[in-house]
Every structure is written in structure tokens, then in C-alpha cells.
Amino acid sequence: MNIDEIRSDTPGCVKVAHLNNAGAALPPRPVIDAVTEHFTLESTIGGYEAAERNAAAVDHFYEAVARLIGARADEIAYVENATRAWDMAFYAVPFAEGDRILTTTSEYSSNAIAYRQVAAAKGVSVEVVQDEPDGTLSLDALEAELVKGNVRLVSLNHIPTHNGLVNPVAEVGRLCREHGVLYLLDACQSVGQIPVDVTDIGCDLLSATGRKFLRGPRGTGFLYVRRGIVRTLEPPFLDLHAATWKAPDGYDVRDDAIRFETWERYVAGQIGLGVAADYASDLGLRAIEARVTDLAQRLRAELAALPGTTVLDRGTRPSGIVTFTVDGHDPSAITQAARVRDVNINVTHPLDHGYDTHALPSAVRASVHYYNNDEDLDRLLSVLKQLGPHG
């Protein structure tokens, strides 16, 4: 991996030390060009006409994302963001009274809200599976709950947004298959950062975003729906793209993942997301993971050596998301002090992310990516050293 070449391909690297990739990564030049060129074409000849002219690039999105995650093109739907992709999958599950939903302590708050809404409407229960001491989902506890029966859905995140761990998602998939249970994976923070192969994982549904580690445009995302289950799920809403009208009072829903799409979409974004998927695949996810892991390990070690600084990350397989606190300093104030020096980090609020009652109210989150370098890390460490242990 030629980091100098990659940084040259990333215009934002000239301006900032961007360590907020778990929020929104800096896009590479090919993605920028693809989005800009299509939008320019729209402004020149018209939106419908531009989509027709660039139909091949629009359609390539499905092949590109399928290649990225080991799926088939007809198992991919383009959705405007990861939350909507997840919602379309979750609300399509045919829940019945007495069903159980199993999730984790680190579940994302938006997903937890959806669980509670469905629980109230359908009479299902939401049950949080206990963690291992290191914070990852306990496979033994999950299996014990599956054995009890009546589980309609196992739903969890691959990488929580606030504590840096990676959940054992392939092992979860094996247990779900053994017990015949539907498996929904929120891969918002993993796609583009580590290898994600839906066949290896064994999930039935997977949602992801474009703007984070995949380095695609904002306002883009995708949903994977395993071919074998797609006909058992009816999306919460349909249009003339997802279904065919049969006058005077009928309709036929598509039998592929496009049943989860709507006709109107951010076409330039879809093209750009396909380019971003190709960019990541061409670099190689194993190489990306190795680079991200090395940078994150170095950052954690340097942070741990700073007086008054506590690294909060958990799990046996750490990701590129690094969370920490500095004694005597509010995380928001640290983030602003860094931004003044053109270092982008963010604040995470663990109490807003799931069912972990022992989480801190807030922490600093620095999330590295492969285009970052040692100078980027040094710039952040310099900011923190200038704060002092008690500021």
C-alpha cells in the first residue's frame, strides 16, 4: 500500500489530520470526480437524461458492492443511509406476539428505539444478551437464549461506534443457522475498515453506510438481503420501483433486494458509492485492516503513556476506533481544541449507544484510517500534551 500515493489521492489530507473516520471519512479523488461529473451532467442536460446516459455506472454499483462483501448483485439494494437500510430490513421482519429479539449491550440507540416500537406494537420482547468480561457478545449466553426458543431475530452491531471492539459475528452466524433464526447485522462501522464477507459471516441481512470507512459520499448506503429469504420479507413501504401495479387493486413485489429501494435516489451518490466500493476492493481489505490496526495500536499506546489519559477501548480484537478521556478536560472541549489546530476528532456518548448502564457519559473518539500517517497521530498527541493533565 503506497500511503504517499493514497494521500495524494485524498485532497483533504493537505488541510487536516482527519481522525474522524467513524463519523465521515475523507473521500478519494475517484469518488469526488464520479459524483462531481454526474452532478455536472445533470445540471447540463437534465437529471433524467443524465441517469440514462450514465446507466452503466449506476448499475455497476450493485456489482461493486456485491464484490466488496461477497454477495450477489441481486442481493444488494441502494438506500440513502445506513439507518434507513437497517430500518427497511428490521421493519420487514414478520414479527408475531411472543417473538423474542436478541441484541447486545452495545446496540446503537436508533436500533434500540426501533426494537421498543415494535415490541409495543407487536407484543414481542427485546432481550439483551450478556457480554464477556472484555465487552464482546458472549456466545455461550447467546446460545443459551437461542435454546430457549421463540427467537425471531438476532440483531447486533459488528463494531460498536463507541468502544473500539469487534464482535464475533461469524460465530453468531453459525449459531443462528443452527437454530434457524434470522440474523441482522449492522455493519455501519466495519464495511471499508475490515473484511466483511456475508457468506463467511452467515448473516441474512446487513446494513452499511457510504460515508464512514468506505469513503463514499454522504447520503448513501446499502442493504444486503440474502436471496433465500428475500420473498419472506415485505418492506414497510413500496413504490413503483419496488413493486409493479396491477390495476385496479393489486401489485406484485419484486423478488430481489430492489424491493427495498425507492425509485427516487441520489444518483450521483449511487455512482460514487460504487466507485468507493471498487476503490476499497482494489486496495484489498486485508491490507486496509492491517494498516488501520497498526495505526490504532500505536495511537492507543501513545495515549496510554500520557499522564491523566485513559484509553477506554474493549474487546480482544480492537478496531480503528479509539476512545479515551483526559482528566480534568471535557471531551467536547478537547475536540474543539483539536479542531482549531486542524485535527478532526469527535465526541462519543456511550450512554446513548445501547443498554450498557456502566458507560461513561461522554468520551473523545479518534478513528484512524489507512490514509492517515504518523504525522496525523503526532498532531493529535501534540494537542493533548498542550492541554496538560489538568488544564
If you had to describe this structure to a student in words, what would you say it looks like?
The protein has 391 residues and is α/β, with parallel strands linked by helices. The protein is built from 13 helices and 15 strands. α2 packs antiparallel against α10 and α4 crosses α10.
What count of helical segments does DSSP give?
Answer: 13
Q: Judging from the principal axes of the Cα atoms, what is the shape?
A: globular
The secondary-structure element order is: HEHHHEHEHEHEHEHEEEEHHEEHEEEH
Please report which band the strand proportion falls in: under 5%, 5-15%, 15-25%, 25-35%, 35-45% or over 45%.
15-25%
Taking the sheet with the most strands, its summary is: 7 strands, mixed
Number of strands: 15
Strand order of the largest sheet: 2-8-7-6-5-3-4
Computed structural class: alpha/beta
Q: Give the distance, in angstroms, between the N- and C-terminal Cα atoms.
A: 39 Å
CA gyration radius, whole angstroms: 21 Å
Helicity, as a percent range: 25-40%
Low-confidence stretches: none
| Mean pLDDT over all positions | 95
